[in-house]
Design goal:
Elements: H1 15-30, H2 34-43, H3 55-66, H4 74-86, H5 90-103, H6 112-120, H7 125-142, H8 147-153, H9 159-167, H10 178-187, H11 194-208, H12 212-222, H13 228-235
């Protein structure tokens, strides 16, 4: 993988990606439902065009696409993801996210720039949140040195990058770096955007399943710094 002169990521050569994309475009395209696609695009605030595939149909097609294919290496994962993201219809992006979730353990810390590219290209919650919790979170868990990157991401001007930093520990449970989680929430506590405020509440609510007292104590100290939305979300299952 390289970076072109324009700063975009270069798609590496991958025979596996050639096979996957050929099957993917053929099978997804043949099952498209233009009428449903209009409704799906409207529901997702016109972030991207859709083929109109329901989730069960898409997953069944994905299994057919991948039938008999070998396990990918990091280069294959990079090629599949970037090539899917070059296609306009959102279902191809969903396929890439699912593929990376399945194979993130085959990727090294060097995959993080690819993940950032996916987070910041055609960004919306439907892909960003899964990439944050399952891909970026998996990479950081495997290589704790990447916490330095998360420390930079939480301060990023791109709200989707900051949201990813907030949510990357979402599945960590007892392995959560509580000090870092709370610091990230405080770092973005004054953010005006709904998606950041919602993410603050969500990551705190999720960690409250592991340590409700820690979340209660944190908000008892710092509640005044957070938007009501964040506090409501954080305390939804544990009370004040």
């Amino acid at each position: 993988m390289g970076v072109t002169g324009t700063g975009t990521l270069e798609v590496p050569r991958s025979v596996l990606a050639d096979t996957v994309l050929e099957r993917l475009v053929a099978l997804y395209g043949s099952a498209a439902d233009p009428e449903r696609a209009v409704a799906m695009r409207a529901y997702m605030k016109d972030v991207a065009p859709f083929l109109g595939l329901t989730t069960p149909a898409r997953r069944a097609l994905s299994r057919a696409v991948l039938e008999g294919t070998p396990r990918p290496d990091e280069t294959d994962c990079t090629a599949v993801a970037l090539r899917c993201w070059e296609l306009p219809e959102r279902e191809y992006h969903y396929f890439a996210v699912d593929y990376l979730r399945r194979h993130v353990k085959r990727c090294s810390s060097g995959f993080l720039p690819v993940a950032r590219h996916l987070v910041t290209t055609v960004p919306w919650w439907d892909t960003v949140d899964l990439l944050a919790a399952h891909v970026v979170g998996g990479l950081v868990a495997a290589d704790p040195k990447l916490t330095a990157d998360m420390d930079a991401w939480i301060a990023d001007d791109d709200l989707w990058v900051a949201r990813t930093a907030l949510l990357h520990q979402l599945r960590y449970k007892e392995r959560t770096d509580t000090e870092r989680l709370f610091a990230y929430c405080l770092r973005q506590s004054g953010h005006a955007d709904f998606f950041i405020r919602k993410a603050i509440g969500w990551c705190l609510r999720e960690y409250a399943k592991t340590d409700p007292d820690a979340v209660r104590d944190f908000l008892a100290r710092e509640r005044g710094r957070f938007a009501p939305l964040s506090v409501r979300e954080a305390l939804k299952n544990i009370g004040a």
